[in-house]
Amino acid sequence: MAEKLIKLPDVGEGVAEAELVEWHVDVGDLVREDMVLAAVMTGKATVEIPSPVEGEVTFRHGEIGDIIATGTVILKIRIVGEGNDGEEEPEIELPLSQPEALSVEPQKQSEPVVERPKPAPEVISQRPAASSAPRNVGAPRAEGEKPLAPPAVRLRAKEAGIDLRQVPGTGPAGRITHEDLDLFLDSQGGGGVAAGLQPNKAVQEVKVVGLRRRIAEKMALSKSRIPHITYVEEVDMTALEELRTRMNGTQKPGRPKLTILPFLMRAMVKAIGEQPGINALYDDEAGIIRQYGGVHIGIAAQTPSGLVVPVVKHAEARDIFDCAREVARLSDAAKNGTALREELSGSTITISSLGAMGGIVSTPVINHPEVAIIGVNKLAVRPHWDGAQFVPRKMMNLSSSFDHRVIDGWDAATFVQRLKALMETPALIFVEE
Questions:
Q1: 3-class SS at 253?
Q2: Residue ranges of the alpha helices (H) in 84-209?
Q3: Which of 178, 267, 326, 426 could anchor a disulfide with 422, C-beta 3.0 to 4.6 Å?
């Protein structure tokens, strides 16, 4: 028997460290070749680490959220034959952002509840059959002892609200099997809830890791360093909606369906041409404002993993259909997790839109170091006074935030009013000046 050392690989692009965001195995698990062992994140890209061998996990280093240097041994796998345990093993360093990680915590706290469940690894050897004898419902483990169970069993226990530390295990080294969990549920009366309302005193500790930590850091940076001014204006979208409906009804094959966003993007390009200071990045440490000729519009998109901002590069060089096509492509890539690093960076101004969930007013947070963000609120039919009577109109609010250090209130209002004029008279969007 020998041991194979699994090190954090070089994920490329000069990255010297990565954040551990997922564990797919635990000590004692049996793994097969090419089975995913863990996942790490660099920037906003997640990289899976597969097993190069078949064997049993005997050592695991690092907790979810730890920052680990490239080349650090994160796993040891006992295998049949020659391993690489004779190689010089690099010193395991403390996580750069978690110096307290030396203390041993219960498994319940070390694994974030947001981690996606993974199927249980296929077992190489047969497990002993679970005994049918009744189990003791009391605590079978000492305080602080960590229960051993495959991911599928942990998921079932979590969904049933069962603390695995209370479940006796019949597998190797006290490992908890599905049969053990079934017998424990049976001993609890099928896991049913007593009749009547019961107080819920559960407290879950969710560790902020991966993309959620990146978002938290970005939001904290923006709110702590940028004095926001938010300006809200309503826009009569009736004429634009009529034009959009006609254009979608007569579109040529291969052309994308138009939403409101491409019209807003083209309106922003025209308005920025008159106020180039809006399309800028502010380096507050150097005291320099960089105004860009190219309009690179970030589109805030919600994904299963959290908020990301894919970027439509050079919107000034795209017509309305090209804008729509690129927005659709980038949104799909972001939601599927296939967006490239360069597609998630480089924006000079951002649009925040929640569609039908946009509400009446919002206070969007500027994407640092940009100086402006345009928030799109919900479109709804509202009564509008035309000077003689109330008439139904399709109305939508724009809630836009600006960096008050470099954008005065008058300039912010002028920019939004220009957007309003263009969108209320959409033909002006297509007029070349």
A1: coil
A2: 107-110, 151-160, 178-187
A3: 267
The catalytic position among 178, 284, 404, 411 is 404
The Cα–Cα gap between 115 and 313 comes to 33
Question: Measured between alpha carbons, how far is 39 from 47 in angstroms, rounded to an integer?
Answer: 6
The pLDDT value given to residue 58? 92
H or E element in which residue 217 lies? helix 210-225
CA 38/CA 324 separation, integer angstroms: 37
Reading the block at residue 58, the tokens are 């005997």
Angle at 304 between CA 302 and CA 308, to 5 degrees: 40
Placement of tokens 């259909």 in the chain: 321
CB distance 121 to 30 below 8 Å: yes
Coil, strand, or helix at residue 231?
strand
pLDDT confidence of residue 189: 64
Q: How many beta carbons lie within 10 A of that of residue 378, not counting itself? A: 17
In this predicted structure, the answer to whether residue 360 has a pLDDT above a threshold of 50 is: yes
CA distances from 180 to 56, 153, 189 (A): 22, 10, 15
Amino acid symbol at 113: V
Active site residue 296: no
DSSP 378: E
> Catalytic one among 182, 186, 283, 408?
408
Q: How confident is the model at residue 196 (pLDDT cuts 50, 70, 90)?
A: low
Q: pLDDT tens digits, residue range 110-132?
A: 444 444 444 444 444 444 444 44
Q: Report the chain's C-alpha Rg in angstroms.
A: 28
pLDDT digits (tens, 9 = 90+) for 12-27: 666 788 888 889 999 9
